[in-house]
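Annex B, item 7. Sequence and structure tokens for protein A, then protein B.
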Amino acid sequence: MKRLITMLERHGLRLTPEGDRYLLDFLKEDEAGNYAEDATCSFWRLHQRLTQQDAPQSAFRSLNTHLWDLAWDAGGNTASPLLSHILLCWTPTEIRASMSMRQPVYQPDEMPAYLEWLVRRQPHEAAAITGDVVALSISIGKAMDALAPSPLPATRLAPALKTRAPDRGRASFKALNSHCLEALELVNELDLRGIPTPRPLDWDQQQEQPAMQQLRALPGLGHVASQLSNMILHAQLQELRCQRGLTAVKSTLHMVFTGNPGTGKTTVARLVGRALAEEGILGSREVFEVARADLVAEYIGQTAPKVFSALDQAEGGVLLIDEAHGLMTDDRDPFGREALDALVKGMEDRRDRLAVILCGYPQEMDRLLDANPGLRSRISRTIQFPDYSAAQLLAIFDAMCAQHDYRLTPAARSLVAGLLGQRVASGEAARGNARMVRVMFEEAVQRQATRLARTLSARTDEDISTLTADDLGDAPAAWVMSA
């Protein structure tokens, strides 16, 4: 075991036991290691997409080849931390195959075969797939800068943008092959000792799920994830143009979310802040939430300083103004007008380092945007959150059950589906949407507790985790909600 530990230490790695398996981790935390770990996660997300789509082996070889090309461009020093995790997850056959690559296969402006295959199979996911590829390249570029800082003022977006030099190519080939030989020896050593090698997405399981992944998983909000992906790709492309000395077309990150109560506006706004930070668009993942009471003062002249203070606190991240339509109570509201004037100035002055998201109801938000001529022009996009369908509300109810370790009996689920269908058909669901579902779930849990109270100690785990039709019998009474 000592020999194995020594081999891992040469790679800057250690094995951490977890149950019946081991997880790989870096011996020490540093900037280059963090970027290498980001690259690993991006690589395995692409690998997982190919696996889920039952891709041919040629697509997997293309993904491995593209990674190898990026590592080649990065050079031997950067390649070591970059490949330490990934190589040990390849099969011995894949490692040996990589050693036959003596020069980069893909040119910087060429679409790799695996990317073309994925986009053709999942055209609706093209933005997300491309985003993972861009994230992989960006992570490697940042790892290069961490190990060998660039004289350029801004971080390189991708190593493939550099001119390929023959001497560096020879050095990369020698370093990468040496690294492969050690990785192959390590794989064999792990196998000899019966230690399971790490599997894809082990690293994602140790981290919080990426914000974009969470956003795509929300029922009925695929169009929001698509628009955000487009915004991120636009920002990354403009940064790439800057790196190449071209004029960038800058756009603001400010947005308006409109929709009825309970349609997910605030939830999505919080995820947007995290996503923009994770993709390198903003410097902080913090979302600073405010409402009218936090921005409007009691006396004329005191409101603008409060608005600027909120903008200063949110700088680098997201300023979320919930129920923003409340900033203006009517056309003659001097306090609200002062708040809007200050907000418009602050949004313009901080357009490159702050995203302001205004959430509110559709008609009210239209009146707010019309109240100040400059406000609408500062907004990059308005995203509408439609009311949920009965099927989407049922999916939300299922998700709440799963999140809290509950399950529905078939009869209970049929009852929930029927009740939700009635509410949507009558138009009453628009008053609450997901909030209505949450109230319904909480009421069902309370009724279950009452039902089981007298014999609680004799109940099994299945009993206390199951919601029956009886627990939903009075559900409609729980749905009387105000807008």
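Protein B:
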Amino acid sequence: MSDYRSKPPPRRPSSPQPALDALLAEPAGDPIRRALWLDGLDRRLRPHLPYSLAAHARLANFENGRLVFVVDAPVWRAKLRLAAPELLDAARSVGIAAAELVVKTAVPVAHPMQAPRPVIPLSATTQQALQAALASLKEPGPSDSHVARSGGAGFDDDVGSDDAGSSADSDDST
């Protein structure tokens, strides 16, 4: 009888493999490889875009001879279509058999508007504390002399009324 044994499958090295390398080694890594390839192609084509357009356009796909770019506004779509011949030539120069340029406009995601927060009125104590703090920042001038005499903050509800100032003025004039 023959002593035939099947060979066990070769073992992988026992050293740990970086996560990305492990994923790319499997068939599940195909979408990642494609995304990395598209990113590399985008970086090679980006210098051929007009400077003002480069920040607003991104290569989204290449399939069946069609370069698909995504832009963030219709104005950039029009500008990219004007630059199509140069961009297709640049793609051919790096070995991509591009025959057509497709430009899609992606509408920016609108964040839902938050309801304005209701304004909470200040309590009387808080309002008085803020007025006192503001009064302490001001240097007393000739018009603030009645504040220093009364010991108050100078922000009474009747500021501008003539009863406090008129009695002082009437005493001085007689």
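Comment on protein B: The chain is about 45% helix and 10% strand.
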